[in-house]
């Protein structure tokens, strides 16, 4: 069986399970369940702490896993990302009190508090900065107030929490993270079970981004219409019983669907329909 690590809690957990369910895999009904066998798909799921997943996958104990890019890089585990999943996006940045420093080049001799000590230590080394790193498990924004550190490094969404603590974001982002599928470094590229899993997940990603659009259009307007709906390769164009008209079917980005429908209508297209895509293979 393909052995897959899945986050058991946190912001990664529910979106990961939802995506796996859309990809046709069984998922647990009881959050206390730690192992789930999906015999029909020849897969065994292990629900683990997100921070531990890279370690298990990198050690070869599990074949692949879903975790955050930040957690993967912070772990230092011999694992690599093989697919971006498009959820749980975050930005990892430095923050401090106004006037302390402007960017990482000024951190020399200072102390940085963070929950991602591996990631920060590497970033400082890559920038040639000699600074101390203190590992904290959470609420790192209080480290400056309590005198533990002069700088913090943490996940930033809106920045409101930092501003409320009297801190400002400084320098360029350390990392932009999101949920990713990972495998051990050096694992074979041609594992058919892994390839099938990735195809399913990629199918979910495409199904979420696109809708199927159908419409009728006069023959003399087809070229203009298909320029608006080129599809992934080429749209399907079929003759209608009513002479001079054709039916067109094409995949279009969901975010653009309403605009495209308006433009098609202005071209004279009628019976314009959009339908969701539940699964696909490209």
From TrEMBL:
Cofactor(s) listed: Mg(2+)
Catalyses which reaction(s): 1-(5-phospho-beta-D-ribosyl)-ATP + diphosphate = 5-phospho-alpha-D-ribose 1-diphosphate + ATP
EC number in record: 2.4.2.17
Single GO MF descriptor: ATP binding
Pathway in which the depicted protein is active: Amino-acid biosynthesis; L-histidine biosynthesis; L-histidine from 5-phospho-alpha-D-ribose 1-diphosphate: step 1/9
Keyword terms, alphabetized: Amino-acid biosynthesis, ATP-binding, Cytoplasm, Glycosyltransferase, Histidine biosynthesis, Magnesium, Metal-binding, Nucleotide-binding, Transferase
Gene Ontology cellular-component terms listed: cytoplasm
Domain of life per record: Bacteria
Similarity section: Belongs to the ATP phosphoribosyltransferase family. Long subfamily.
Protein name: ATP phosphoribosyltransferase
Source organism of the structure: Streptomyces noursei
